[in-house]
Amino acid sequence: MAEDNTTFTLPDLGEGLVEATVLEWQVAVGDRVERNAPLVEVETTKSAVVIPSPTEGRVVTLHAEENEVVPVGAPLVTFAVTVSDDAPRAGIVGKVPTEEARPARRVRLKPPTD
Amino acid sequence: MTANLAGDVTMRYVDLPPSEPADAVPVLLLHGFGTNFGMNWSAAGWPQALGGAGLRVLGPDLRGHGGSDKPLDEAAYLPERFTADLLGLLDELAVDRVDLVGYSMGSRLAWELALTAPDRVRRAALGGFGPVNAFADADLSAPGAGDTPFDQVFRTVSGLAGNDAEALAACARGQAARPFAADPAPVGVPLLFVSGARDTLATGAEDLAARCGGTHVEIPGRDHANAVSSRVFKQAVVDFLVG
Fold first, then answer.
1. pTM for the full model?
2. CATH architecture for residues B2-135+161-242
């Protein structure tokens, strides 16, 4: 098994927001995090949001300090992600993430009764 | 996401089972003025925190908000109309008792529900809430036009996607028509108050907690807008509900 570094940027938080302020990191360098685990708490002009981890991996770098304003698209976290040695890699620069099992849906979907 | 008819309005809500099925009392989350379940609670990481603690989460969009109907008549927003919706929802789901977690206006409604139906409420956690008048000095015939703290809140939320400024104005007037009173306090329902140290809308929360035999947890450095996603808040609530 090998590790690849992958950097996650501040996602578009919607409603035309262009930046967010880091309130509190929920992880530290060296932590192993699960996919969807709380990663960082940020505040926009509209609301406070917890961004979940997009991947399972080990935190290598946090690219912003707490109270720092980060533009959408700027680096937020670099993860070391484990890749299996027999994964197809030829011809691919970087890495195509392996799709993990879909998380169990917690929302019951039922059409409105009206 | 489901919707049901609770009285005169259709209410949208989510019903999220915990990650580990448990028979704990479900938690009813009540969002603040001008937001909705998704924005106030989901985006702030609450379903994950509560679900991870083995708790089932019920999350309505309160009338006038989110995916629920938005009447324009201020009488539709008296606190008792909201509590009737919530009791209707519990009946619909055949849930006898819940724990309540509110934020801001949702906390005021949690207090109201605990007063109205103490047999349906086990415990209540009230975030971002104190005995101060949230509408102080605001001209509610034209909310957003002035410069009071409420006018500023109104301007922010009335511009959010999916919100109806006219319905929110009616909601503000309906809420203001029944000023909060600390007396009587709910009987037999343990209360937890949680607020940011810099939250001016929660001024007096500590005294209110002391008056009604509750506890108060302060979140260092946070204000009304950014206390809701705090780990300190979530941990205090999980400890209060599960501990």
1. 0.89
2. 3-Layer(aba) Sandwich (3.40)
